[in-house]
Design a protein that fits this description.
The longest helix has 33 residues, at 2-34. By secondary structure, the chain is an all-alpha fold. 1% of the residues are buried. The chain has helices at 2-34, 37-65, 94-100, 106-112. The N and C termini lie far apart (90 Å). It is built from four helices and no strands. The chain is rod-shaped, with a radius of gyration of 27 Å.
C-alpha cells in the first residue's frame, strides 16, 4: 500500500512538473508574440479597421442629419498613410476602406430628412 502511495505521489509530481513546463512555454510564446513585429502589424490593422468603420458610421449619420454640410473634404485621399510594416500583410490600406464603403448621395438623404436649422 505504501508503495502505491509513493508511486501515485511520484506520478502527481511528474504531472505537476510537466504542467509547469507547458505553462512556461505558453507564457514565453505569448510574450514573444506580443513583442513581435507581426503583433504590431495586427494591432495596426485592427485599429485601422475599427477607426474606418466608426468613421463611416459617423459620416453616414452626419450626411443623414445635416444634408447641407459638404463632406467631400473628408473623403479626399490622404497624402501620408500609416500601415503595417510588412509589404506582404493582408490588410487593405485605409484608402480602400473609404472607397469600398457605400456612398450616400446627398440628394437621397436630403429628400428623406428635413433640414436642420
Amino acid at each position: 500500500m505504501a508503495r502505491l502511495r509513493a508511486e501515485l505521489a511520484l506520478e502527481k509530481e511528474e504531472k505537476r512538473k510537466a504542467q509547469e513546463e507547458v505553462n512556461a512555454a505558453m507564457e514565453k510564446a505569448v510574450k514573444d508574440l506580443k513583442s513581435s513585429k507581426d503583433m504590431g502589424d495586427i494591432k495596426i490593422a485592427f485599429t485601422q479597421e475599427a477607426f474606418f468603420e466608426g468613421f463611416q458610421d459617423c459620416l453616414g449619420w452626419i450626411i443623414k442629419n445635416f444634408p447641407d454640410i459638404d463632406v467631400d473634404l473628408l473623403l479626399e485621399e490622404p497624402e501620408n498613410r500609416v500601415g503595417p510594416s510588412h509589404v506582404d500583410a493582408e490588410v487593405a490600406p485605409a484608402a480602400h476602406a473609404i472607397e469600398a464603403a457605400p456612398a450616400i448621395p446627398k440628394s437621397a438623404s436630403a429628400a428623406s430628412e428635413p433640414a436642420h436649422e
